[in-house]
Structures are given as structure tokens and as C-alpha cells.
Design a protein that fits this description.
Number of helices: 9
Oligomer: single chain
Largest sheet: 3 strands, parallel
Helix content: 40-55%
Order of helices and strands: HEHEHEHHHHHH
Shape: globular
Strand order of the largest sheet: 1-2-3
Number of strands: 3
Structural class: mainly alpha
Strand content: 5-15%
């Protein structure tokens, strides 16, 4: 409808049937034993399964397909997602996706403040260490934006253990200690 192209239900069924076997084969292919970094991004659709229960099933499927270890799993803010990951991969370090966290934070801001609040939060997630990140969060909280939008710092504190894992990784040798800005959502 969006592109003003009409297709019949029979056409959609024939295309689906033509690729179904390949999709199923791809979905069931063996995976590597170890992945250093995996981005898990939950698609928000209505499903019968509870979110964390669904993701626990996904983690078990990955294990069954050969994955033995994930070093760092980057996740959105879905409740129960970190627990689902660590139930199957207990040594995995879970990192909250900073892009998702910033987007969530900016939902609390007035339109005119979003750019300035985002710049203030950048000092937190680009800090060179976890202790410095906490100091920057405390400064944000005590400052203009933290007083105007107290829910933002509170949401960062609730997710803090999953906000700081990247802060423990030293920058590459010969590079600035400034961390790169996340470029993907």
C-alpha cells in the first residue's frame, strides 16, 4: 500500500514458499563456538511469550547450535534480558546499548533541551573509566539537567551495572582516551 503496488495473496504465498527452505536452513546453521561481541536488539511486537522467557528460549537455541561463549552481549533495555543471557551464558558481560539508553533518556526531555542533555550525557558514557563515569553521572545529576529531569539519572543508576562494562576496556594503544560515539541503534 505504501508504494501503491498491488500484489495478490497468492503471489505473497508463492514468494514465501520459494524462500522458506533457505530461511529455515539459514536459521538452523551451525554457529561459531565463541563470539566476542553480540548485539541483541529486541523487536517490539506482540507475542504470547513473556519477553524474558522468549529471550531465554533464543539463548538456549544459540547454545544448541554450538555457541559456547559470548564475551560481551549488548542489549536494549528489555526487562529480564540480561538475566536470560546470563542464565545460559553465565560468564557473559552484559552491556546496555548506550544508544537505546540515550533515546530512552531523551524521551523525558523537552524538545528544545534534547541536544544539550545528549551532550551532557556524552560525558558520562565517554568517560575513560567506570569511576569517572560515575563521577560524571553524579555531576549530571547535581547539575541543571539532573535537577530539571531527575528521571534520567535515576534510569541510568537502575541500569548502572550494565552501563559501565565498556568503561573497563582500555582505549587502543596510540589512540585518544576519548571513547567513540555509538553509531548504531
Amino acid at each position: 500500500q505504501q508504494y501503491r503496488i498491488e500484489v495478490s495473496p497468492d503471489f505473497i504465498s508463492s514468494v514465501t514458499d520459494a524462500v522458506h527452505a533457505e530461511v529455515t536452513e539459514w536459521q538452523n546453521r551451525p554457529l561459531e563456538k565463541m563470539y566476542p561481541l553480540v548485539f541483541f536488539d529486541a523487536l517490539r511486537v506482540r507475542i504470547r511469550d513473556e519477553g524474558a522467557k522468549f529471550w531465554l528460549k533464543v539463548m538456549n537455541e544459540l547454545r544448541n547450535r554450538g555457541v559456547e561463549d559470548v564475551l560481551i552481549a549488548v542489549v536494549d533495555g528489555l526487562k529480564g534480558f540480561p538475566e536470560a543471557i546470563t542464565a545460559v551464558f553465565p560468564e557473559t558481560q552484559v552491556q546496555t546499548c548506550i544508544v537505546h539508553l540515550i533515546r530512552h533518556s531523551l524521551n523525558y526531555c523537552g524538545w528544545n533541551d534534547k541536544e544539550l542533555v545528549a551532550a551532557a550525557l556524552k560525558l558520562v558514557y565517554r568517560a575513560e573509566s567506570a569511576p569517572m563515569a560515575l563521577r560524571r553521572l553524579e555531576e549530571f545529576e547535581a547539575g541543571e539537567w539532573g535537577k530539571k529531569y531527575p528521571t534520567i539519572a535515576a534510569s541510568w543508576r537502575r541500569a548502572w551495572e550494565q552501563v559501565i562494562p565498556f568503561s573497563s576496556i582500555p582505549p587502543p594503544c596510540g589512540r585518544s582516551s576519548t571513547r567513540p560515539t555509538p553509531s548504531r541503534a
